[in-house]
Amino acid sequence: MNKDKAEDLIKKYLTGETTPEEEALLENWYDLTALGQANEQISPDYATIEKKILTALRNQQQPVPVRRLWPRYAAAASILALLTAGLFYYKSTQRDAPLLIVQKDIHPGGNNAILTLANGKKIALNALNNGNIITTGNITISKNANGQITYQTSNTQPSTTEVTDNTITTPKGGQWRVILSDGTNVWLNASSEITYPQIFKGAERIVRIKGEAYFEVAKDKEHPFIVKCDQQEVKVFGTHFNINSYSDEPVVKTTLLEGSVQVSANDQKLVITPGEQAIKDIGGHITAKPADLEEVMAWKNNSFHFENTDVKTLMRQIARWYDIEVKYEGQVTGNKFAGELRRDTNLANVLKIFEQGGIHFRMEGRILIVTAN
């Protein structure tokens, strides 16, 4: 953004005439200049403009806007990547807050899962070369060129194979994608599990999950697809939806992106439509509300997305993806957070960003201790 454009936006910003898009553009630019992170991309004239912003904001009669972009503390090479994250928070904090020092950085999670066969044999999927894994009767389990696990049945011989269940489990810091024998695609988030038959037989296609999974179910009106989790059942015929059923979360969330699903629990049944989310509370009661699809699907799109998110909810996501344990000391900040951050960011950069929102930490090995303000 050039000097003239910046000055025009500043004038509009201070008079309340900026659109949300213009405000975001200005805040992106301001965040870099204020921290001196723009290097040669920004001329010395911008320092003068920055002083105008600071002076004007301090002299305003109304409070400073609370929605502020997160400061960037990544190396210059990663600034652009962090800009796409656009993290901001809902409370004004000191820009010169002390930074967390991490002695040994922790890398983000990645593709990692264990396949457990019916006979109990365990296969580390990320360690396998692409190609066939195992053939049982007319069922072939393969790892394809994209690293996905696929189940295929042969139509050249009768299906005499006994139907047995397989399980794919992702650890903390792991994720995986599997294509079931009916063509249904399933993505597993970290610390999750799916149990399913090698081949679907009978009137229904039934799978069981723990944790979080996104489904793109192959259409088959004659054989409904049923997902069982945490005393809840989701019934579909062919649709796209996400289920978050982690045991450490207070509710189970089923979010529909395409098609129609029926969610059942404790003799209660609820049908939701695209863009809605069914929430099962601790008492087993189900309610529906509009869903924030960006927030729900962020993990599948390699991002964290926060929307008015409290510290402990945020930290549960961080703990799963970075394979760490989180503990708390004292009364932690009540700040709420909003924005996005890529999941391929190392933990140190993530924590430095969060600390500017009022969260304070110390690391002891792989234990992250969140301390009082």
Can you name the CATH architecture of the largest domain? Sandwich
Count of alpha/pi helices: 7
Shape: globular
**Quaternary structure of the protein:** single chain
Query: What's the level 1 CATH class of the largest domain?
Result: Mainly Beta
Q: Largest sheet, described in full?
A: 19 strands, mixed
What's the total count of β strands? Answer: 26
- Cα(first) to Cα(last) distance is 36 Å
Radius of gyration from CA coordinates: 24 Å
β-strand amount: 35-45%
CATH topological fold name of the largest domain: Jelly Rolls
- Could you say how many structural domains there are in total? 3
The parts where pLDDT drops under 50 for at least 5 residues are 32-47, 60-103
Notes on the protein architecture:
This protein has helices at 3-14, 20-35, 45-59, 79-83, 293-297, 311-322, 347-355, and strands at 68-69, 88-89, 110-111, 114-116, 122-124, 131-136, 139-143, 149-153, 165-170, 174-179, 185-188, 192-197, 205-216, 225-229, 232-236, 240-245, 252-258, 261-265, 268-272, 276-280, 286-290, 303-309, 325-329, 337-342, 360-364, 367-371. It is of the alpha+beta class. It folds into 3 domains: 3-65; 67-106 and 300-373, Phage tail protein beta-alpha-beta fold; 110-296, Jelly Rolls (Sandwich), CATH 2.60.120.1440. It has a 19-stranded mixed beta sheet that branches.
